[in-house]
Amino acid sequence: ARLFSGKGFSARTYKPGIFRFRGLSPDPAAVLMLHLPGYRLVTMFPFEVPQEGPMPEFVLRKSLPIEGHVVDAEGNPVAGASVNASPLSLPGVEDPSFFPVPHPEEIFSLNQVVSNENGDFAFSDLREVEYRVFVKELEGKESSAVVARPGEERLLRLVVP
Q: What is the edge-to-edge ordering of all strands in the sheet holding 155-159?
């Protein structure tokens, strides 16, 4: 679990599935992010601590992949391509420009993978939103982009110029 805030919160995990934050005070820009490999990333923004009653509970769900294949203009597999997944929305956030930290996928390094020797790639542990998936080349050029959502039963095909 990670809690991002401008007020210097700290976090500690006490036993599996239980974490505590010390020094909490109201902060409208606080963001809580939970990540466990094999499970979908969970975010809560703004993160508000209830003054009374039970603390929020979070249920982690098994992750669903976004998978695909990178090829060149002739249809040959491209190994070592840097494939990016950029979220198109932040659930619960009307204007993403006000989100106080980088996208959660960036913080946990979930938004970038490298294609294998067969040109195959797979993203896992992403939130269940739509992503713009593309290859960014060293020269700054991008492949064709595809919009995808985790768990779709299709293989993406990204063509690099």
A: 120-123, 66-71, 155-159
Other beta carbons within 10 angstroms of residue 161's beta carbon come to 11
Nearby residues of 84 by Cβ (< 8 Å), 6 or more positions away:
111, 112, 133, 134, 135, 136
Per-residue pLDDT of the chain in tens (161 residues, 90 and over written 9): 667 666 655 565 666 667 766 666 777 777 788 888 888 888 877 777 777 777 777 788 899 999 999 999 899 999 999 999 988 877 665 555 656 666 778 877 889 999 999 999 999 999 888 999 999 876 667 777 899 999 998 899 998 88
What is the residue extent of each domain of the chain? 66-159
Domain 66-159 has CATH 2.60.40.1120: yes
